[in-house]
Amino acid sequence: MRLTDLSSKYAAFLMLLGLIFNSINASPIEVDFAHCETKVFKWASSALDFEVREDKRTLRDLLFFLHVPRTGGRTYFHCFLKKLYSSDLECPRSYDKLRFDPSKPNCRLLVTHDDYSMMSKLPKEKTSVVTILRNPIDRVFSTYEFSVEVAARFLVHPNLTSATHMAGRLRSKTNGVSTLDIWPWKYLVPWMREDLFARRDARTRRGPTNYQNNDSYNMEDTVMPLHEYINDPVAHDIIHNGATFQVAGLTNNSYFAESHEVRHCIQLHQSLGEYVLKVAKKRLDNMLYVGLTEDHRESASMFANVVGSQIISQLVTSSSKPGVSHNKSGSDSNNKNQQSLSQNDVLDNTSGTPSSGNVSTTFNKNMTVGELMEAYESCISSLRKAQSRRRISSLKRISPANFSKEARLKVPESLLQQIASLNRLDIELYKHAQSIFAQQHKHVEQKLEMNKGMLKNLESLPGWEFLSIAIFSLLLLFLVYQYVNARRTSKLKV
Question: pLDDT of 323-373, one tens digit each?
């Protein structure tokens, strides 16, 4: 019996040693994956708990425009929102510096490249979020082109040191804000600027060559080739799946303390990206509006009907209160920005563009949705002309490279497939955005048809019946307004 007991104890001891040995020699990859999965799962669970939204179709007190880079959001800001919100209603430094203190009382508009983590700084129950997404492959192309375009403006200088010093001096002297202050360009433009100067210096040392290449995206003598750009660690950290990380709140500009570790885990273990994708999809579901760059005209019309109409109604109600006025001219700030632009072709001023002088910042409370669309079309035309002039001027400095739709057709299919593979999460998120867009479109169409039907019915009524219904409707609206206002006042008192 004693021998049997000793054998059992010895066997148990060996098993314990084996477990210890296996734990010590466990694969670092397995340990790292387990840690990462726990970390990402925990973050995703808390993020989904944060996403509780009632009546998402109603505009709240604060509009947060989450501007994904290279989606056309700047056009919406200048040609829609600046026509609706006066400058005194914008949250402080909402479109220029990303790190700001959102403490200004009663600010109603926040437009920024900040990611969704900004919501942690805002009154969640009083904030509506809108955004625009773009086909991920086109967005990568556009990001590459814009990075090079802005960086090329510095080539007017003899060397990189001169360009860097001059840019710093000009930025300190003007009130305008440079692209170099804006995420993600504050990382991407200096990267491309350094690369352009290095390639120009190498050409100067080497002298002229007979080498010819008509592929603008693969001119390594002049500019970093696209295939090199998309495989750089900078692109992996900032560009690829950038829309998903921005909507999820996990960019390298995030306010979430755990964002860096979560993002790093997802980059190491691609399967964990599904957790983040789920969060990003849910956040899109809860937004007031989701637009698509590719469906530009339809997106603009929907924005005017879904968002613009509610802003107009909200501001009309607000301006009718005694002592409240939102008519404030922005001509002084526009003039200052015009001066900074004329003085400095290198810095791309974001807070004021050449066309911003055409954008009235005085709210017209008699404006209709149709008039808003007409003003938008006029504004976007002048804005695009100004952007085109700047683009042509910049690209001349890296000739013969010339980015265009025609030039993109020469990019090999294998490279396009690689971009798609690197942006798998963004492609899935974009498909989800398309589905949301279709639902929004259907809802707007139904609403417009219902309004047309009501109008026809009213037109068929005798004059006295129409007048009675109109008076009753106005009285009902007044009573609803009084009730909502009383509830808000009681909450403030509590």
Answer: 555 544 343 434 333 333 333 344 454 433 333 334 444 556 678 899 999
Question: Smallest Cα–Cα separation from 34: which of 287, 338, 272?
Answer: 272
Which residues have C-beta within 8 Å of that of residue 241, sequence separation ≥ 6? 273, 422, 423, 424, 425, 426
Q: Tokens standing for 300?
A: 């603009």
| Euclidean distance between CA atoms 174 and 154, whole angstroms | 18
Q: If you search the block for the tokens 């810095």, which residue do you land on?
A: 347
For 176, the token pair is 């305008």
pLDDT in tens, 294-306: 999 999 999 999 9
- The label of the residue with tokens 């497939």 reads 417
Round to whole Å and give the CA distance between 295 and 397.
32
Look at phi and psi of residue 106 and say left if phi exceeds 0, alpha if psi is from -120 to 50, else beta. Answer: left
Q: Are 274 and 136 in contact (CB under 8 A)?
A: no
Looking at the whole model, is its pTM more than 0.90? no
Amino acid identity, position 185? W
